[in-house]
């Protein structure tokens, strides 16, 4: 347990007053504090959007990169410095839309990072267009006649592609969310946490409307049961199942064979490639008689 | 002096690269430098491919198309490439064919392979033997090279190759007994034989590169492949899902302390453009190899061009510092690679290493190939000397003390938004934004002062100066030498460091003409726009083949 104040940032918060993003921020701070890690041992990675501003509001390492590109940046950070807990925290438009392909391949790679998706089912910062998770039929400030595509079901996709920790949280229950985030951060391998985060500005529905649709996983849910987890992830959109849907130990994490060879130190501290060996390699290009 | 020029032609998948490599090494073993170029189509099997070998007394690393000997692995290869054969040249072919004035030497590659080696796959050894026989290389050279080439495959393979090669060698000798071979007395000279892309990964590893992510794209793929092949270099190599991921992974790794790079071609670099802009904004070093091929769009994927100079110079939205280096041969590529990592690190910028298919796939013969005496390592600030860390602290030079993510107790904050010195998002348009713009651009101003001058030769008395950049160096040097032999007062000016363009003088008097592998004279445009030097024209080659002396001389006629 670390002092909760160590993560406090004095950067002015730009979110709407009352936005459920504040709950995600608080839950993440709670999770990090409970883990007893220091700010310099954490790296928050984000893309662009309202959610992607979260890293500025906690004191930690920050890589606030490009829209949709948080996941590849996080993979690079993790490979270069596995000692840092790398946590992606960005919106559904960023991670599922612009960056969807990266996420798909991240599941396959299974790097030891955590991906927190603030899912407000809308593009908020650009003022109310459909996101990849907006339910079919919802009218938006761009899809005036209603969305004509089905929403992305990334949690099921994650399980199908070998992701070993898949959960959904709800901003209406901050303690439970903090607990899920804590489990996700300590999980070895990629952990995906989608957080139901109703948009209080652009959503057609109230927070209560969302609350009525939240379905906690039953006490009998077995997170190790892949088929059951996929079935739970596919429920909805009228039901939003909350809890750890799927969890099993990772067989193998990204860069494992490299790390088995060179050890776990940051790449910056890795012993330099033997220049003599490289000189020999150059010398071998000479064709001798 | 020219000794001989050979074309080994066939379809993709017929092993002409192997034949070319083996025969080139036989010449090198005899003490002669070889310049080897490859032309191939974007396909796995079939088509018209060739390897050209140019054998000279002193290294002459410039392409030529004319040949004394054409080894046609199949009849189609003969009809496609025979126009390159010099008068009195020799064709080596499997079947009797009309030589059109050339002497035809028939070598039943496959029959001899079956008879002597016991399998058709030894036809390439037969062909290599025939070629060595025709030019008069000692068989002992071939025997040694085959033993070396197939060292890992066991004695049986070596023996089968050797007897097959001997059969081809003997048949060729019999058929050319009445005719002198090329004069190739053994010499003690020895040369390094390599392509620029073969040595870039070695130089990068020596420069302390620790991370590469790349998406396969011709002609750049050899770079990441080399790192994958040499895990003992301790460079982490990852095939990314696309070029966007590749550059963002590299930037993440760099931010967390690893010297990082990626490699691609023009189309992939187009996808990276936003990432290049990100590197400029977050002031994070990264080295990007851009191996050019003809565009637009997919263009000619396996051919060469110099069409992306202005693109790499301008790619990325907004205004930010970068460096562009364009090496001209393997040694220049080694030096440029080491320098790219150093500049990227010292200025905290993206550095582009601009090569092309010609540099990727041509093997040069050089007297020596060496790493620079000193290789500057990565520099980070001393965290203990810092009280409160601000990643973008204003300094006179515009370069802020850099700590990497997780290096110390100081959190490091990087932001693609306009940011404060601490790295936090801001919209302070008065106090913050103008100073941050000035900070970033101050780095360009300082960087410009240390960019290398163009390499000038024979300018003093010149009436004509050929101005080039990157891979055209050998062709321009050859053209200048031939024109000087004819008594023409011609000089050359060659750029390998293109951005920020250094301050340089163009003495008045001569005509200045750029020589470029593009249609629009991109270097000429750059010199006019950046330095106000309006030149007198451009000699272009745009057919996907490398600029050669012949192209230049023909244009000047």
Throw out a few tags for this protein.
heterodimer; A: 289 residues; alpha/beta; Rossmann fold; 8-stranded mixed beta sheet; two-stranded antiparallel ribbon; 10 helices; 10 strands; globular; B: 557 residues; Pyruvate-ferredoxin Oxidoreductase, domain 3; 3 domains; 7-stranded mixed beta sheet; 21% strand
Biggest sheet layout of chain B: 7 strands, mixed
Q: What is the CATH-assigned architecture of the largest domain in chain B?
A: 3-Layer(aba) Sandwich
Give me the CATH superfamily of the largest domain in chain B: Pyruvate-ferredoxin oxidoreductase, PFOR, domain III
Biggest sheet of chain A, strands in spatial order?
2-1-3-4-8-7-10-9
Q: Estimate the helix proportion of chain B, in percent.
A: 25-40%
Q: How many DSSP helices of chain B?
A: 17
Overall shape of chain B: it is: globular
Approximate strand percentage of chain B: 15-25%
* Number of E strands of chain A: 10
Multimerization state: heterodimer
The proportion of residues forming helix of chain A, as a percent range, comes to 25-40%
The Cα radius of gyration of chain A reads: 21 Å
Report how far apart the termini of chain B are.
23 Å
Rg value of chain B: 26 Å
**In the CATH classification, which architecture of chain A applies?**
3-Layer(aba) Sandwich
Please give the domain count of chain A: 1
Could you name the CATH topology of the largest domain in chain B?
Pyruvate-ferredoxin Oxidoreductase, domain 3
Spatial strand order of the main sheet of chain B = 9-8-10-11-13-12-19
CATH class of chain A: Alpha Beta
Describe this structure in words.
The complex is a heterodimer of chains A (289) and B (557). Chain A is an alpha/beta fold. In chain A, 51% of the residues are buried. Chain A starts with 20 loop residues before the first helix and ends in a 6-residue tail after the last helix. In chain A, β9, α8 and β10 (240-247) form a beta-alpha-beta unit. Chain A has one domain (4-263): 3-Layer(aba) Sandwich (Rossmann fold), CATH 3.40.50.970. In chain A, the strands form two sheets. In chain A, strands 2-1-3-4-8-7-10-9 form an eight-stranded mixed sheet, with helices on both faces. Chain A is globular and about 80 Å long. Helices cover 33% and strands 17% of the residues of chain A. The longest helix of chain A is centred in the N-terminal third of the chain and has 15 residues, at 21-35. Chain B folds into three domains: 2-190, Pyruvate-ferredoxin Oxidoreductase, domain 3 (3-Layer(aba) Sandwich), CATH 3.40.920.10; 194-366, Rossmann fold, CATH 3.40.50.970; 455-556, 3-Layer(aba) Sandwich (Rossmann fold). Chain B contains 17 helices and 21 strands. In chain B, β8, α8 and β9 form a beta-alpha-beta unit. In chain B, α1 packs across α5 (139-149), α3 (109-117) crosses α6 and α7 (196-206) packs parallel to α12 (330-347). Chain B is globular, with a radius of gyration of 26 Å. At the A-B interface, β2, α2, α4, α9 and α10 of A face α1, β7, α7, β8 and α9 of B.
